[in-house]
Write the structure tokens for this entry.
Amino acid sequence: DQQVKQNSPSLSVQEGRISILNCDYTNSMFDYFLWYKKYPAEGPTFLISISSIKDKNEDGRFTVFLNKSAKHLSLHIVPSQPGDSAVYFCAALRRGATNKLIFGTGTLLAVQP
Amino acid sequence: EAGVAQSPRYKIIEKRQSVAFWCNPISGHATLYWYQQILGQGPKLLIQFQNNGVVDDSQLPKDRFSAERLKGVDSTLKIQPAKLEDSAVYLCASSSLRDTFSGNTIYFGEGSWLTVV
């Protein structure tokens, strides 16, 4: 049962343009949604998060939008830079005894110079 | 501040052999996680420790996988006997108790890459 889904395995954009990465989830009980960035041969690093009670969170070039009715969130990167090329994982967390992160399958973003 | 340390970085073993991975979390972090990431998939939680107690091991294949966190600091993940489908990156992560609920302070190590042939 895939509770967090990233349906686009890859995305290619031009430097300076907007990158939009999408994520869908099935469990309406999630409290937080997070985006992690992963370079090859490195562990995932936290990028940005959003509480389930918000619909937008912005941090510099990165903005995450949450549409609870559609159970959908997206990460916008503006402007995209070649250094943003990496795998992006969407993850969801439900507060409780375990606070377990559930990850999507990832989207490989390639930013072309 | 030193990050999450893992070793070995790379390991190649034959099926039915055993392997062990070691993790040293960030100093003071009470929560430690082991994730398995198979190529093309997202990380999947295998086991979560709070200090030296197991909080969640529901997705740990207990017939072949075992993990321990003696003294609530370092942790070891063992696979015995290994199968071909165990080929993956094993990620260790840690978090301080007071930050765990928001998820944005879970720090990952670089991972241990396992190839079973």
